[in-house]
Amino acid sequence: MTSLLTEIDHIAIAVNDIDAAIKWYEDVLGAVVVHREDVASDGVDEALIKVADSYIQLLTPTRDDSPVAKYLAKNGEGLHHVAYRVDDCAVALEAVKASGARVIDEVPRLGSRGTIVAFVHPQTSFGTLIELVQEGG
Ligand code: CO
If you measure from the C-alpha of residue 1 to the centroid of ligand 1, how many angstroms do you get, rounded to a whole number? Predict the structure, then answer.
């Protein structure tokens, strides 16, 4: 079959102190933050660092009931999810669901930067939380 995945959109890393993490990426790796957004729906503050056509997404929770807060409490800092760019999030999500995989979002929803996203549960994707990202218009 033709791949539904067109690019790595971002690799997300959960951190406790996003300002300290940004400073580390800037000072040590010369990284450049190109986007900052408080994503209220997910309870996270994100910073996007551009790497070629992809991003590193630093994430920190903005409230205690944020999924990222729960993740940090359970696992500590580190890799949180891998986001793949797709042409059509709804089509990709339907293909994932049709395969019997467990999803977190039953229908696509709005992500940061005006993207359309859906998350696939790590339980049926070999331990990795996967995000499908369709770029906005
Ligand atoms: Co993401």
Answer: 26
Which positions ≥6 away from 62 have C-beta within 8 Å?
38, 40, 43, 44, 45
Taking the centre of ligand 1 as the mean of its atom positions, its distance from the CA of residue 3, in whole angstroms, is 20
Backbone angles phi, psi at 122, to 5 degrees: -65, -20
pLDDT in tens, 47-92: 999 999 999 999 999 999 999 999 999 999 999 999 999 999 999 9
- pTM of the complete model: 0.95
Catalytic (active-site) positions? 10, 46, 57, 81, 131
Show the tokens assigned to 40. 């209220």
State which residues have CB under 5 angstroms from ligand 1, the bound ion. Answer: 12, 83, 131
Domains and CATH numbers, the chain: 5-134 (3.10.180.10)
Cα(20) to ligand 1 centroid in Å equals 20
